[in-house]
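Quick sanity check, MFS transporter:
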Amino acid sequence: MVLSTATPSLAPPPFTERRYVVTLIFVVSLFMLWGLGVTMTDILNKHFQQVLHVSKANSAYVQAATFGAYFVMGLPAGWFMKRFGYQKGVILGLSLYAAGAFLMVPAANAASFTFLLMALFVLACGLGTLEAVAHPFLDGLGDPASSDRRITFSHAINGIGAVSGPLIGGYFVLRGNHAAGDLSSVKVLYTIIGVVVGSVGLLFAFVKVPQLNAEHTPETRLGAPNETPTDLAADKSLFQHKHFVWACVAQLFNTAAQGGTWAFFINYGTDYMALKPGPAIHGFWQVGTLLSRTVGLVPGLPHLANDVAAYFFSLSLVGMMLGRFLGTYLMQYIAPNRLLAFAAVANIVMCLIVAQHWGWVSFGALIGLNFFFSVMFPIIYSLGLKDLGRHKQLASSFIVMGVVGAALFPRFVMGPVANTSVAHAYYLPIICYVVVFVYGAKLYKAGRG
């Protein structure tokens, strides 16, 4: 008798299981909804500058209200889902999201910037709750070893909502000329959003969520195939896991750079794309001007209108979505932390080019920023949740709180510089990308076995 010496094939774990499919579809849809809600705020920045005569720096209070809510709701959302479960956590998030959208109507009627910020804060409390709940929820919807793929894929779907935000906002809000105090388009848009989000919440209340897999169990370590899954975090407090602590720091700086990039994207387009080209590219510019008239640029002038700048912003978010799908594929061959470090270096180069305001070259680099930071948020999130066992739910809340970087950085760091020079403000995110690079190159494994 001949004994076979062949080793069993190590097939990758399944993406999910059949019993989770319906629940997974709903959870993934949440990523699309909050992508829509977040990028819509960057449209409001420019609109409030124009209609309410708010300065560039003060308009960044829109980001402060939105992402500050993530910080405020991070821990309460974690405690809520630990006490009442993931499904009720999702319903809470959608309820706050819809309530904030409906509050935008009386706020717009009052034409009050403060009231509008309060409504956005309530809406963003819903977004923060959804984000805190959805990541550990995804972790339980299948094999823990495939959770990285589920999270990165869901963030790619998030890109559909992110792309839709500027397109919808540009069409409803920025298109045409608006008189001072005219916020009628804001009322129509957010009424529709409130109805859609509220309907999704109502439907999800009737979904029967099956028992989740490995909800509090960490992944088995590589190289130990016979190891019995145990709670590796049992004898450690959450903040003794240094890789998690550094993930929170990295996410703070990552979202700071992202928030600043998005907050002043439209300002960059309208400020610098009005510059006439040099003689060397004059012929190309004439062709571009001819084409531009067909897509809504100011006739006869090399100038981006507000709504067209918003469409370019949407184009950049298409790059972000494609970057996440590409990143999901590349992680089969490249370690996630290395991909993260490479993306950080690429964005340092992009920011240097953007800050020079070299016309379309710099504007192209600004669009490219989204492609490279596409994988940063999900990779930092997944690396930070590794080997945390029973701490995963609370850890998710703390990582979500790191999104407060997007509240502080545009208003208090980039905003004052942008009042003088929007282009030079893009030097500042370089500091953030250096921190992300160090995390991806070294600190992602701090304290791990």
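Posting the structure with no commentary besides this: DSSP finds 18 helices and no strands in the chain.
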